[in-house]
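R.M. (postdoc): so does anyone remember the format we settled on? I'll just put the structure tokens first.
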């Protein structure tokens, strides 16, 4: 009871803040890198697919998005390992490491860290790109049918300006909402991805604490996620007021 109330791990006897503080930067690094890939690629593919609606390219992208999104993340992670680590190594090609954040006992630098980040980032990026691309496509198609877009065309505004000024900004609003809902839980750790690639982040900490019934650490992680949910929703509302002139904060 004393350990629980004092916020001390029941397993390591370390403060919960220290346990979380040791792992949180690793998860933030992984998620930030993944989202630097996810957001621009998913937005670009979604816009491309919407502007070429019902063409062969749109059909192929939509089909691939459904297939990738339906694939369990542990299966895609193991598939990436089989291709880029096992198969490449057998063929004598440069292969990617599959576990950890660097060579054992070595100094961790950006150059040593990058190869270890490729597979987990790809594993996360594929499924989220497939999901976000569908949201962007649907949003762009909806905005293209709005009255203000038709009015802009009637006034002779160029298609490029209509796309950049009227369509893309408004089409980004649903994506901001989805990202705002996802980010707090991703900071809590991509449990499956971190487990597959032995990435020492919040997801691994959650699994370890769950296996050992380390309740203070579990409660600390859940409390962090709850706080981030509130903050992310506040930031999302503020971004809405910036991107959409029809929304005003009172």
């Amino acid at each position: 009871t004393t350990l629980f109330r004092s916020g001390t791990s029941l397993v390591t006897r370390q403060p919960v803040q220290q346990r979380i503080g040791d792992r949180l930067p690793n998860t933030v690094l992984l998620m930030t890198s993944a989202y630097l890939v996810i957001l621009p690629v998913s937005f670009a593919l979604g816009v491309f697919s919407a502007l070429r609606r019902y063409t062969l390219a749109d059909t192929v992208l939509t089909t691939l998005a459904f297939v990738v999104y339906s694939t369990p993340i542990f299966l895609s992670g193991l598939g990436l390992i089989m291709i880029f680590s096992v198969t490449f190594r057998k063929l004598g090609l440069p292969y990617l490491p599959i576990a950890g954040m660097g060579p054992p006992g070595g100094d961790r630098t950006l150059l040593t860290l990058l190869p270890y980040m490729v597979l987990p980032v790809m594993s996360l990026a594929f499924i989220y790109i497939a999901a976000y691309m569908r949201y962007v496509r649907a949003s762009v198609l909806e905005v293209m049918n709005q009255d203000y877009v038709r009015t802009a065309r009637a006034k002779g505004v160029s298609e490029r300006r209509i796309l950049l000024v009227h369509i893309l900004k408004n089409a980004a609003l649903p994506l901001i909402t989805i990202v705002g809902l996802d980010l707090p839980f991703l900071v809590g750790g991509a449990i499956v991805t971190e487990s597959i690639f032995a990435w020492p982040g919040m997801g691994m900490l959650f699994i370890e604490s769950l296996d050992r019934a380390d309740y203070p650490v579990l409660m600390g992680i859940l409390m962090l996620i709850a706080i981030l949910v509130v903050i992310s929703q506040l930031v999302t509302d503020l971004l809405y007021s910036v991107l959409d002139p029809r929304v005003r904060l009172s």
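R.M.: ...and that's the designed sequence above, right after the tokens. Also worth knowing: The chain is about 75% helix and 0% strand. The mean pLDDT is 84.
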